[in-house]
Write a structure and sequence with these properties.
single chain; alpha+beta; four-stranded antiparallel β-sheet; 4 helices; globular; Cobalamin adenosyltransferase; PduO/GlcC-like_sf; GlcG_carb_metab_protein; PduO/GlcC-like
C-alpha cells in the first residue's frame, strides 16, 4: 500500500533532487492499482508533462518495470514493439517511471516528467529511494 504520507515523502525527495539539478518537474505517485495518490507540478514545470508524469507512474506499475527499461524492448523488431499504443495510449516508453517496492514487492510507482530522460529518471530514483 502507498499512503498519502508515503507519496508526500517520495515527492519531497524528488522535488529536492529536481531543485538540485535546476529542472522543475511534474512528479506523480501511484498506488498498487496504478491509481494516482498524489501529484506535484513544480513552479515552472511544463503543463504538458503533467499527463506524462502520471502515465509514467501508471506504466511503471502496470508492467512493474522502470520505463527506461521498457523503452529498448518496445523498439521495432523487439518483443514489445507497439506496446505504447496499448491501453488507449496510456503506456509511456521513455525514462522517468520507477516501481516502488516494499519488502521486495511492487506496491506503487513514481513518474517524473519535465526534463531530459536522464533528468527524469534521476529525479524518480531520488523519490523511489525515499520510499
Amino acid at each position: 500500500m502507498v499512503t498519502l504520507a508515503d507519496a508526500r515523502r517520495v515527492i519531497a525527495a524528488a522535488e529536492q533532487k529536481a531543485g538540485e539539478i535546476g529542472q522543475p518537474m511534474n512528479i506523480a505517485v501511484a498506488d498498487a492499482g496504478g491509481n494516482l495518490v498524489a501529484h506535484v507540478r513544480m513552479d515552472g514545470a511544463w503543463m504538458g508533462s503533467v499527463d506524462i508524469s502520471i502515465k509514467k507512474a501508471w506504466t511503471s506499475r502496470a508492467f512493474d518495470i522502470a520505463t527506461k527499461d521498457l523503452a529498448p524492448l518496445s523498439q521495432p523488431g523487439k518483443d514489445f514493439f507497439g506496446i505504447h499504443a496499448s491501453n488507449d495510449g496510456r503506456v509511456m516508453i521513455f525514462a522517468g517511471g520507477i516501481p516502488l517496492k516494499r519488502d521486495g514487492q511492487v506496491v506503487g510507482a513514481i513518474g517524473v516528467s519535465g526534463g531530459s530522460g536522464k533528468q527524469d529518471h534521476e529525479v524518480a530514483e531520488a523519490g523511489a529511494k525515499a520510499f
